[in-house]
Design a protein that fits this description.
This protein is α/β, with parallel strands linked by helices. It contains 10 helices and 10 strands. It folds into 2 domains: about 70 residues, no CATH class; about 190 residues, Vaccinia Virus protein VP39 (Rossmann fold, 3-Layer(aba) Sandwich). Helix 1 runs parallel beside helix 3 and helix 3 crosses helix 4. The structure holds S-adenosylmethionine (SAM).
């Protein structure tokens, strides 16, 4: 990739912001350039300049690029040891908070939000809790609300659930039909999914637990600081932030406003 390619890619990022309002300017340069280059190859453009022009007039092409940029890979009970730590460390630390308020930022197709809903329901600690699950991608939010997953995935979900310390019959949480399974209505009703952009939207109030995993990895350090500020302001005192395995708050501007509750599992408590 030469200097001109980089200039044209940066122009694409600017153009997306001006035309469609999505602001990817603070995302990690290496990652976003790679994704735009993937799209160039897939869509068969010879130059970034020709793709830029097409993006301005073709919303369908923009939506395909959006899909490429917002990596939606997720899983139920992803990194099961983190959920084990939430069961063992976080829930006891948050005991007595009612209603317990959880925010799952960058929820993708809902697996993470439903995992936490299952965990809270099993803990029976909180007669009342609210789970807000947000993302910028409307398509994944729709899939999350439907809560329908390919039957082939359930085996993987089940083994993660068991590794996380789950002792119930996991299939009872789903209704299977043909080649898919739907998460029970009880959990679908407990999670509220909606659009929220970590780059541009504002804070939540008095959240006790924020899970934002495998999202900040795509952001540059300045943008990460903006998001940490958003989380710090959204959390209630003593509230807990859970990040992804490759993410940390410890080298950010907000490092001294959180204490490491369980750094291996990326659990931090607001001081
Ligand atoms: C790799 S998935 C992570 C899903 C889940 N948190 C997990 O760890 O399995 C990243 C998600 O972050 C979302 N995302 C990216 N930029 C975002 C932003 N600015 N605000 C909110 N969500 C964003 C993407 O749409 C995508 O669904």
């Amino acid at each position: 990739m030469d200097e001109n390619d980089i200039i044209e890619i940066d122009l694409i990022i600017q153009a997306i912001h001006l035309k469609y309002g999505y602001d990817f300017r603070g995302y990690s340069k290496a990652s976003i350039r790679r994704r735009i280059t993937n799209m160039l190859t897939k869509a068969g453009f010879d130059t970034y300049a020709s793709m830029l022009h097409a993006l301005l007039i073709d919303e369908t092409l923009f939506n395909s690029l959006l899909k490429e940029i917002t990596v939606n890979v997720t899983n139920m009970f992803r990194d099961p040891e983190v959920y084990r730590a939430i069961r063992q460390t976080v829930l006891p630390a948050l005991k007595g908070r009612s209603p317990l308020k959880v925010w799952n930022a960058g929820c993708s197709t809902g697996e993470e939000a439903y995992s936490i809903a299952i965990l809270l329901s099993e803990a029976q600690l909180f007669p009342v809790y609210q789970i807000y699950a947000t993302d910028i991608d409307e398509q994944v939010l729709k899939e999350a609300k439907d809560g329908i997953y390919d039957l082939k995935k359930i085996k993987d979900f089940t083994s993660n659930y068991q590794l996380s310390g789950g002792l119930e019959s996991f299939s009872d949480y789903f209704t299977a039909k043909y080649d898919h399974a739907r998460i029970s209505q009880q959990f679908r009703e407990q999670v509220v999914f909606f659009n929220h952009n970590l780059v541009t939207d504002s804070t939540f109030n008095e959240i006790d637990l924020i899970l934002c995993r495998n999202v900040l990895i795509y952001f540059g350090s300045e943008l990460q600081n903006r998001v940490f500020k958003l989380f710090w302001e959204s959390l209630s005192p003593g509230g807990i932030l859970c990040l992804g395995s490759k993410e940390t708050i410890m080298f950010s501007d907000f490092a001294d406003r959180f204490e490491a509750l369980d750094p291996t599992n990326k659990l931090y408590r607001k001081k």
